[in-house]
């Protein structure tokens, strides 16, 4: 009989998103993909969930421990107050490492610092530049991102371009760990019949309908094009919004607003069967909607930004348009007149998903960070 003491499990608490298994945005998707893989590798994972969003509140799902914390339910305060309460709870817990997402939670690192808890934060995109955060909101996000570099033990960015920006703006080193993708070669084509669509009879936009994703630019440019195909817009916002109302009031038979598509098989079929996928996201790093487009074999037409250039390997896996309607009209005309080139983009899209975007590799990198932090403790 061996007298060796069993090695204790690594305990990681994750906070800053909506929770698990709630999948609404990029952070929620990452927590699901990463949390499940960490759990399978023997890590004790706790995820903090936004209490108001969960009707049922099981203590465990798929081996992941869930803690439901409250928030002040006001649009601008919900996320921050939820993270604040979650951070306090995590600091009083037996977690070895606390992993936080969203640079808005940067200041809360001072709490974990006081408690001596090792922490990592994934800071995501250039939040302070997003149009929805005007004035004070923009200033807060810039300051919060700077505080993240002061109070957290490890800052994580999801792209090389974001790493460069953090070094330039905040003189702060960060580790690059991208989001992963789940490639799929086929889908159930009958799923798109509910919208009366056929394979390659439409272009696609997927994302929250907020100004920084530029759906307005793409739609207004598309309406001026001569394409006979539909433009399918998947996404919405969970509140009353004049920007969205204005988009939906544009009269053109080619426009189809689906609202949210929560069924993952329907969403996969929409991606997989589109003629081209429009990506107008402007301020993020590695974008999950773009990764899905690559994973599902789309011909990608993307806004020309350093982030999109990085993801599409400087034009190897997609074409770019500028931030004006004329450029959108031109890229539609190009796509319509060169079906063979569009087919080549679709056929080679998945080859752009290098090791960097493999979820198992992403999990390896996070586990390395968490073990290093736990050992420092």
The geometry reads as globular
Give the end-to-end Cα distance, rounded to a whole number of Å. 31 Å
Overall pLDDT metric:
92
Return residue spans where pLDDT drops below 50 for at least 5 consecutive residues: none
Largest sheet: 8 strands, mixed
Run of helices and strands: EHEEEHEHEHEHEEHEHEHEHEHEHHH
**Count of helix runs:** 13
CATH topology of the largest domain: Rossmann fold
Strand content: 15-25%
Pfam family, one: Glyco_transf_4
Domain Glycosyltransferase subfamily 4-like N-terminal: 24-178
EC number: 2.4.-.-
Organism: Belliella alkalica
Write the layout of secondary structure elements.
Elements: E1 11-15, H1 26-40, E2 44-50, E3 60-61, E4 64-69, H2 78-91, E5 97-101, H3 109-115, E6 119-122, H4 136-151, E7 154-157, H5 160-170, E8 175-176, E9 202-206, H6 215-223, E10 230-234, H7 242-248, E11 255-259, H8 264-272, E12 276-279, H9 288-295, E13 300-303, H10 306-311, E14 319-321, H11 325-337, H12 339-348, H13 359-376
Parallel strand pairs: 1-2, 1-5, 2-4, 5-6, 6-7, 7-8, 9-10, 9-12, 10-11, 12-13, 13-14
Antiparallel strand pairs: 3-4
Helix pairs in contact: 1-13, 3-4, 6-11
């Amino acid at each position: 009989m061996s007298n060796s003491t069993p090695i204790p499990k690594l305990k990681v608490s994750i906070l800053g998103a909506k929770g698990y298994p709630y999948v609404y945005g990029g952070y929620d998707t990452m927590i699901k993909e990463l949390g499940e893989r960490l759990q399978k590798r023997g890590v004790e994972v706790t995820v903090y969930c936004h209490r108001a969003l969960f009707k049922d509140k099981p203590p465990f799902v798929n081996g992941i421990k869930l803690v439901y914390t409250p928030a002040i339910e006001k649009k601008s305060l919900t996320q921050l107050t939820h993270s604040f309460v979650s951070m306090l709870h995590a600091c009083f817990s037996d977690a070895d490492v606390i992993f936080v997402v969203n640079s808005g939670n940067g200041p809360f690192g001072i709490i974990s610092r006081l408690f001596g808890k090792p922490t990592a934060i994934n800071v995501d995109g250039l939040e302070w530049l997003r149009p929805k955060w005007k004035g004070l909101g923009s200033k807060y996000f810039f300051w919060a991102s700077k505080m993240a570099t002061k109070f957290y033990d490890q800052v994580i960015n999801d792209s090389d371009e974001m790493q460069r920006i953090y070094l330039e703006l905040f003189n702060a080193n960060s580790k690059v760990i991208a989001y992963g993708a789940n490639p799929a070669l086929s889908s159930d084509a009958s799923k798109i019949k509910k919208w009366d669509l056929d394979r390659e009879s439409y272009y696609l936009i997927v994302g929250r309908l907020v100004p920084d994703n530029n759906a307005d630019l793409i739609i207004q440019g598309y309406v001026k094009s001569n394409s006979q195909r539909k433009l399918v817009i998947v996404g919405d916002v969970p509140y009353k919004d004049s920007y969205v109302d204005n988009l939906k009031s544009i009269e053109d038979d080619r426009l189809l607003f689906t609202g949210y598509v929560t069924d993952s098989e329907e969403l996969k079929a929409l991606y997989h069967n589109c003629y081209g996928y429009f990506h107008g996201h402007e301020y993020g790093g590695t974008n999950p909607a773009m990764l899905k487009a690559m994973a599902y074999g789309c011909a990608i037409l993307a806004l020309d930004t350093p982030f999109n250039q990085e993801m599409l390997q400087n034009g190897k896996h997609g074409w770019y348009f500028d931030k004006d309607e004329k450029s959108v009209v031109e890229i539609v005309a190009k796509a319509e007149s060169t079906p063979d080139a569009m087919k080549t983009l679709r056929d080679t899209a998945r080859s752009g998903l290098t090791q960097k975007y493999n979820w198992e590799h992403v999990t390896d990198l996070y586990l390395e960070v968490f073990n290093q932090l736990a050992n420092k403790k």
